[in-house]
Amino acid sequence: MVHDLIQANQKLQAEVDFFKRQIFGKKSERFIPTPGQLVLEGLDVAAEPGLMPSQGNLPALSKPEKQKPVRKPIDESKFEVITQELHPEVDLEELAFIGVEESSYKVLVDAKIVIKKIKRYKYQKPSGEIIIADMPYRPFAKSAVSSSIVSEVLVQKYVDAMPIYRQEKAWNRLGVDFAYSSLSDMQTMGYDLIKPLFEAFKKSILASSYLQVDESPFKVLSSEKKGASHLGYQWVYLDPVSELVFYNYQRGRSEQHPLEMLKDFKGIIQTDGYAGYNKVAQKENIEQLFCMAHARRYFERALSNDPDRATFFLEEVKKLYLIESHIKEKHLQGTDKTAYRQRHAKPVLELIGTWLDQNWAQTTPKSTIGKAIQYSRERWQGLSAYVEFDHVQIDNNAVERSIRPMVVGRKNYLFAGSDQSAERAACFYSFFITCRMHNVNPKAWVNDVFEKIEHLKPSQYHTLFPQNWGK
């Protein structure tokens, strides 16, 4: 009886510590506190400062020398240059000219809306036939706006995380009274035009052999009941080798969604520990790997419950990340990368695996440390298998980073107005986040796509993918 009460008390205390940290504390998973860092009462879950991971025979990472910040010269080729010439306000006739001192700075010139009129002149042949100049192509010919305005609306919403009601005010400052419904319609127009490209883009990513998969909630207004909402999910599939990502909106978190999406996929998927991927992993042509960062997270949260065990695990995992840093620093690829991991990381992984087996029976299953050990022990094969492949990463942090822009957006606009709106969001987040990964200007890209897509055959769509655009 007393033992059960102690366990229940430990569980409640761990939950209180977690919620305090979520509200008031740091989100970083660093377990070595920064010297001088303030610690809120009840959040002192870090290990002692002296507990540093031993690096064994790993060479020290070279630290780049700190340089004083230097103002970069302005690249005038990217801008319109307005030159102002100034002479001293004195009589210059008796003075000898000896040179010019020049300085440059940036000036913001307000954007403006212009009205473009097209006058097509008509003529009549002697036969009576009337001829008129052809109408130039416009992607949204039935609309009173150009593709440049539609592109701006989409970039403001899905790149700058600006809700439609804020966009209304921004356009008003330019002297244009776009109604809320008009701005929403522009998103629909853009989606309808670019949707075939999105389908082709999705197929190209699913043809890869290694995907990181994650999902994130996305609140949507319900069509069944006015004013109500339901919790949909954006399922995110990332090819970390080619740096391509696509979102797939679904109304729920059922295991059927990734199962259907990956029905023809062959290769490696890397996920967190969510059981919704279990059926996918059971398919013959799919191998599932897990994320080391998720395993580390459980132990970082267990520092207050069992600092000795939690610190040991965190120290050993830190060695694994140091090894990955060395690989990146040395630019190792292919078999060289795999051999380096086998030589340095595999012994660490074997040590941790043995330690998990030894300590599993020595902890209570419902304690924070017990849950951490059980989580990693059950998945250790999938957590340590990354060393067998040169193209696989130690964690799926890359796919989590690709979700952040959507998280910022939903915090601002709170929900999507419908399932169709959530599907549009999936499309544009896919393209714009891929643009960011490849240093592509999202507005220039989407505007160019609008102008070209109807002139291309489906077999040519790949030329418009962000990673290929402009090449």
Range of strand content = 5-15%
Uncertain residue segments: 32-55
Q: Please tally the β strands and state the result.
A: 7
Q: List SSEs in N-to-C order.
A: HEEHHHEEEHEHEHHHHHHHH
Shape: globular
Mean pLDDT figure: 87
Structural class: alpha/beta
**Alpha carbon gap, first and last residue:** 71 Å
The proportion of residues forming helix, as a percent range, comes to: 40-55%
Number of helices: 14
Largest sheet: 5 strands, mixed
Strands ordered across the widest β-sheet: 5-4-3-6-7
Q: Which radius of gyration do the C-alpha atoms yield?
A: 29 Å
Explain the overall architecture:
- This protein is an alpha/beta fold and 471 residues long.
- It has 14 helices and 7 strands.
- It has helices at residues 2-24, 147-158, 164-173, 180-206, 256-261, 278-281, 292-301, 307-330, 334-360, 368-378, 380-384, 397-413, 419-437, 442-452; strands at residues 122-124, 130-132, 210-221, 229-239, 244-250, 267-271, 286-290.
- Strands 5-4-3-6-7 form a 5-stranded mixed beta sheet. The chain has a two-stranded antiparallel sheet with strand order 1-2.
- Helix 6 links the parallel strand 6 (267-271) and strand 7 (286-290).
- The longest helix has 27 residues, at 180-206.
- It is globular.
